[in-house]
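User: I've been trying to design a sequence by hand for this structure and keep getting stuck. Would you show me what you'd pick, starting by listing the structure so we're on the same page?

Assistant: Good idea, let's start from the same input. This is the structure you sent:
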């Protein structure tokens, strides 16, 4: 995980994670690293949570299992870019999280 974050994240980034040990090495690399402890039933502490990224991955997994069932490794980055675009521009398209909530 250290190499991925080192290559792709700005040193000015704030990183919110769960308590997994794979993130320990990044503590000194970024502006701020905070964790929530799911093992202690802590899922949100103020603005610290992993709910957003979990939501993004759930949308991606549903799309890959439902619509795009046969994606190989070579075009995977294109599918990720498509879902990234859809997630980030959903409000501009009139689909805010608040409007979609029952």
């Amino acid at each position: 995980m250290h190499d991925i974050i080192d290559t792709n994240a700005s040193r000015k980034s704030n990183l919110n994670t769960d308590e997994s040990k794979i993130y320990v090495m990044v503590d000194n690399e970024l502006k701020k690293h905070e964790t929530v402890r799911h093992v202690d039933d802590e899922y949100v502490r103020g603005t610290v949570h992993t709910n957003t990224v979990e939501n993004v991955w759930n949308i991606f997994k549903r799309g890959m299992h439902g619509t795009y069932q046969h994606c190989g490794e070579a075009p995977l980055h294109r599918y990720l870019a498509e879902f990234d675009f859809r997630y980030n521009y959903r409000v501009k398209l009139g689909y805010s999280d608040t409007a979609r909530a029952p």
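That's my pick for every position. To get oriented when you compare it with your attempt: The first strand starts at residue 14 and ends at 17. The chain has two domains: 2-49, 51-100.
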